[in-house]
Amino acid sequence: MVTIARWTQDGAVRTGFVHEGRCLALPGATTPQDLFDAGLKATLQLAARTVADAPVDAPALDQVRLLAPLEPRTVRDFVTFEEHVEGVTASIDGAGGVVPEWYEAPTFYFTNPHTIRATGETIPVPAGCSRMDLETEVAVVLGTVDGLTGTDLDPGQAHRMIFGYTILNDWSARDVQAREMKVRLGPCKGKDFASTLGPWIVTADEFTDRHDAEGFLDLAMTAYVDDEPLGTDSLAHMGWPFAELVAYASQDSRVVPGDVLGSGTSGRGCLAELWGRHGDLVPPPLVEGDRVRLVVEGIGEIENTIGARRSDRIPAARARRRGRARAGAPTAQASAAAHR
């Protein structure tokens, strides 16, 4: 298996392929986006040539520091696991079941492509958060396909645009998220402080023979906190296969090479779901020093340590009068008199 990765060695950032535990760098100016723009077929041909010409002194994985495998154009994160929705709804809203609207169409939000973290990094707890959580996900990365513009794709076309797969941890400040969503908007600061992608991108050809008749992938997904497992689920338990998510995202819109689309959290893949099922904060929220590891069959694993909580906070809204005319503007009475 050949995977696409980014790493630093001796202060230089490199893009290349990882093969049999060695990091095979591409020319210095190459970025992952160059590979997505070239498309999967061209990238696989390049990978074959790179492996064939690999220098004997190519560094081993333990000699480099892995970075996030790409700098995404956008990150759309879906919510596709029914079991997760049921548990988190109970945790955040105190309600049971799954709302009927969830079944009607896949739902996603945009998160921050500028706060992507790598495996091995420390993840700070955001300001105002006392309920830090993890989220166990798989994400697809899109690539160029000749003849496709990325708009109004059907599922077959969308499937062809899937360049590869990576692991996603959609870190969540659950108490901040719950407050935001009571305002009927968000999540925003409950989510946008960090998302981990990695450890690399496994190209889509590696999974060609693993899709079932409906396009689902039966890959085991397990989350660990300090080596204690939260539970294991299968990627095949998504309510929609990835091809349908990509197609939906493209409707009346556009997806492009370098876009990332997350599966949403697997069942038993986060703490909030378990809080909802237990009716209490069991297991407890993440705190400084906790180690979180996500393992996905066929892709690999990522691990991060929780850092300290930020203390800065924005003050509450000031009470303001409603309906007061702007200084110098005519009053309602004056406007009425002017039109008599």
Describe this structure in words.
The structure is a single chain. The chain has 340 residues and is of the alpha+beta class. The protein folds into two domains: 2-67; 75-309, Fumarylacetoacetase-like, C-terminal domain (Fumarylacetoacetate hydrolase, domain 2, Alpha-Beta Complex). It is built from nine helices and 18 strands. Strands 1, 2, 3, 4, 5, 6, 7, 10, 11, 13 and 16 form an eleven-stranded mixed sheet that branches. Strand 1 (2-9) and strand 2 form a beta hairpin. Helix 3 (82-93) crosses helix 8 and helix 5 (155-161) crosses helix 7. The longest helix has 13 residues, at 40-52. The mean pLDDT is 94.
Topology overview:
Layout: E1 2-9, E2 12-19, E3 22-25, H1 32-38, H2 40-52, E4 65-67, E5 75-78, H3 82-93, H4 100-104, E6 108-111, E7 116-117, E8 122-125, E9 132-133, E10 136-142, H5 155-161, E11 162-169, E12 172-173, H6 174-181, E13 195-203, E14 220-225, E15 228-234, H7 242-250, E16 260-262, H8 271-278, E17 291-296, E18 300-309, H9 332-338
Helix pairs in contact: 3-8, 5-7
